[in-house]
């Protein structure tokens, strides 16, 4: 495996195998909803397993190849013999077990570890299931799938011993979908899959793995194969038609002389070799090499890709997008440093001002484009939750359905990676804690089927992800009792709103689950959810009505890279507040200032009192304005908690690039109310204030 480390072949293997596994999982879940496997699903799963088997064997991941091969045999039997009696539930469990096994092994490969999982138990389970359905249906296989045992070989033997009954000769031309990339590797997979089905094979380009120009030749002219085999034309066509990313296939019989002449194709590519095809066109080698990491797909117009005639997608490594994002961020800072330079501001030139505005426009458009490229729909993450619901429903013997909405909503890819685990935990909690048993639901007048709704919608610069169940809801008295036992109740329950009481379940070690199960009741979980969401600048809102259900709302930002901020001056220091957190700004009068019994300063605004936090006092800033009438008050809101920050003056609104803080500050950044920092146009550093930290600090 280490021979392929960080190579394009490994990248494309990981990407495509992961994609196939996710699709397989959804095929099974969708079929469970209708109660049976249709022909389309059977063919699709067979094709996925066939491809994973071949590519895994090619990469020498033999345990994955063995498991895929065994499941492929199961679905091949089902496809060819169409047995009447199949235990669909057991088949679903078996298929998902294979999916889980391969996912674990692929994750090991991603982490540069050896995929050393032991497949024996799954292999025995799959073989036992296949034997059982044969016995139950009293079916003898009417057709036999050619065996293709896993072999530890990298280079392919191009000619085999000719069998006496091998008298058919074929010419095939394969064209792959535009934009799929790595055509040479895909062609290698095709040849690998054919080695045990044919007696002799020649193909062009011949050195598809080693030659840097092979992909371009295949992309422009197709992958040409000459075959000698005992297979019929129909059987060979059926096999080649299962090729992944197949755009078109030309297959026809030829004479033995034509096949013998194809031996010329075995020469390595050094110069363009003209090969006559059925349309009398010639194949020419290209001198241009294309290498693209296959992690995230980015739309582009065909005219921007001169190497492909009509491609609309290219694959780009996410790390490259991160570098591009950082570079654009530096460009935004540099543009601000130029246009806001005191020397530049004194230039009275209409031409310069026009050029400056154009630069700002172009920089903004570039920034917006890079941001849009990084945006990924939530659909992939949402769809995975069907598997969680399916597995837990079976284990807990609860009938639960999951409905989705707003899955097309997009957020930054880095944020999606951070919210996947919290979403999974909330769904599990909803089923285990919230949804009652069938008997309990029927007794309370509900339908026996529990319902969970998972959705998303945009709300200004944030995205709201909503998880709602129609279960038994939260019991306030039990929550208050548990909070008292844990010593985390800081105020009298009579002074707390329902929402504040419900939010107590987000504290560490808080659980009202009396019975410990494999899913919950161990006093951990919800605090981790809140912590993970807070790490991306988000919040968790808990709402519930006893007997009717609970709603969890995750409020997360669209992106963490660039924010719209308001710059403040406090003494000789600079601070930035996210615009989305600001409600209003005003200059208070001395008569509006109130001192509460705890000697905390409050300000009266339209009949309402709000706590005040002096920024200069909190950060010990010298030479700052201390009189309220001379400074400015900024009212900010976080999680429906309002606080007024006092500063010297507002410097203006600006898009700022968020720079992360050093690791040794991360552990205390929320305590001191700092989310990061940025560079301003004059080159000075501005600290980005964490409003959530301020709100929690001042409220307490």
Task: List key phrases describing it.
700 residues, alpha+beta, five-stranded mixed β-sheet, 24 strands, 22% strand, disordered N terminus
Describe this protein's structure.
Helix content is 41%, strand content 22%. The protein is built from 22 helices and 24 strands. The strands form six sheets. Strands 16-20-21-19-18-17 form a six-stranded mixed beta sheet. Strands 8-10-11-13-12 form a five-stranded mixed beta sheet. A hairpin with a 2-residue loop joins β20 and β21. α1 packs across α13, α3 runs parallel beside α5 and α10 packs antiparallel against α12. The two termini are 55 Å apart.
Which overall shape is indicated by the principal axes computed on the Cα atoms?
Answer: flat
Give the biggest beta sheet.
6 strands, mixed
- Which strands sit side by side, in order, in the main sheet? 16-20-21-19-18-17
Give the strand tally.
24
Mean residue pLDDT: 78
Structural class: alpha+beta
- What is the beta-strand fraction? 15-25%
Rg, alpha carbons: 32 Å
Low-confidence stretches: 1-6, 146-164, 267-304, 306-311
Count of individual helical segments: 22
Distance between the termini: 55 Å
Helix content: 40-55%
């Amino acid at each position: 495996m280490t021979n392929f480390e960080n190579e394009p072949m490994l990248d494309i293997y990981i990407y495509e195998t992961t994609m196939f596994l996710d699709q397989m999982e959804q095929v099974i879940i969708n079929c469970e909803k209708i109660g049976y496997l249709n022909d389309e699903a059977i063919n699709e799963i067979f094709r996925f397993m066939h491809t994973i088997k071949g590519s895994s064997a090619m990469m020498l991941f033999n345990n994955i190849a063995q498991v895929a091969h065994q499941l492929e045999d199961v679905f091949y039997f089902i496809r060819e013999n169409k047995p009447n009696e199949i235990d669909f539930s057991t088949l679903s469990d078996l298929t998902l077990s294979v999916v889980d096994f391969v996912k674990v092994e692929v994750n090991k490969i991603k982490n540069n570890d050896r995929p050393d999982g032991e497949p024996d138990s799954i292999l025995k389970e799959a073989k036992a299931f296949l034997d059982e359905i044969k016995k139950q249906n009293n079916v003898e296989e009417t057709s036999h799938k050619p065996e293709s045992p896993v072999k530890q070989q990298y280079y392919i033997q191009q000619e085999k011993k000719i069998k006496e009954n091998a008298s058919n000769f074929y010419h095939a031309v394969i064209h792959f979908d535009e934009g799929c990339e790595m055509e040479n590797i895909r062609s290698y997979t095709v040849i690998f899959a054919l080695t045990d089905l044919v007696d002799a094979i020649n193909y062009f380009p011949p050195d598809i793995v080693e030659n840097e120009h092979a992909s371009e030749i295949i992309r422009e002219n197709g992958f040409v194969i000459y075959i000698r085999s005992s297979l019929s034309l129909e059987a060979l066509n059926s096999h080649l038609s299962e090729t992944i990313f197949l755009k078109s296939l030309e297959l026809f019989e030829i004479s033995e002389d034509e096949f013998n002449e194809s031996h010329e194709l075995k020469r390595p590519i050094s110069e363009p070799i003209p090969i006559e095809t059925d349309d009398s066109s010639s194949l020419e080698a290209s001198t241009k090499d294309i290498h693209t990491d296959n992690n995230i797909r980015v739309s582009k117009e065909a005219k921007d890709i001169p190497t492909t005639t009509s491609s609309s997608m290219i694959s780009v490594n996410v790390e490259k997008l991160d570098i591009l994002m950082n570079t654009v961020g530096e460009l935004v800072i540099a543009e601000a440093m130029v246009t806001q330079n005191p020397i530049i501001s004194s230039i009275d030139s209409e031409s310069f001002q026009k050029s400056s505005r154009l630069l700002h426009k172009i920089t903004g458009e570039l920034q917006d484009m890079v941001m849009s490229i990084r945006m990924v729909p939530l659909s992939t993450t949402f769809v995975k939750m069907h598997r969680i619901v399916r597995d837990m429903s079976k284990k807990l013997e609860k009938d639960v359905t999951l409905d989705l909405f707003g899955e097309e909503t997009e957020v930054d890819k880095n944020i999606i990676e951070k919210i996947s685990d919290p979403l999974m935990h909330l769904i599990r909690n909803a089923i285990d804690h919230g949804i009652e048993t069938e008997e309990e639901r029927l007794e309370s007048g509900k339908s026996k089927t529990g319902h969970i709704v998972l959705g998303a919608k945009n709300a200004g610069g944030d995205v709201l992800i909503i998880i709602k169940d129609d279960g038994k809801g939260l019991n306030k008295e039990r929550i208050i009792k548990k909070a008292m036992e844990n010593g985390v109740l800081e105020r009298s329950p009579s002074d707390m709103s329902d929402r504040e009481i419900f939010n107590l379940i987000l504290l560490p070690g808080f659980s009202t689950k009396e019975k410990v199960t494999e899913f919950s009741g161990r006093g951990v979980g919800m605090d981790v959810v809140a912590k993970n969401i807070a790490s991306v600048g988000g919040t968790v809102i808990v709402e519930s009505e006893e007997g009717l259900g609970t709603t969890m709302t995750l409020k997360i930002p669209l992106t963490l890279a660039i924010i719209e901020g308001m710059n403040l001056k406090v003494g000789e220091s600079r601070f930035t507040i996210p615009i989305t957190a600001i409600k209003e700004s005003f200059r208070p009068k001395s008569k509006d200032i109130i001192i509460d019994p705890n000697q905390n300063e409050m300000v009266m605004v339209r009949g309402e009192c709000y706590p005040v936090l002096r920024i200069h006092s909190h950060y010990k800033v010298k030479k700052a304005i201390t009189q309220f009438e001379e400074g400015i008050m900024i009212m900010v809101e976080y999680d429906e908690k309002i606080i007024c920050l006092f500063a010297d003056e507002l410097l203006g609104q600006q898009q700022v690039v968020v720079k992360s803080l050093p690791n040794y500050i991360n552990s205390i950044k929320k305590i001191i109310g700092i989310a990061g920092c940025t560079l301003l146009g004059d080159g000075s550093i501005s600290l980005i204030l964490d409003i959530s930290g301020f709100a929690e600090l001042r409220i307490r």
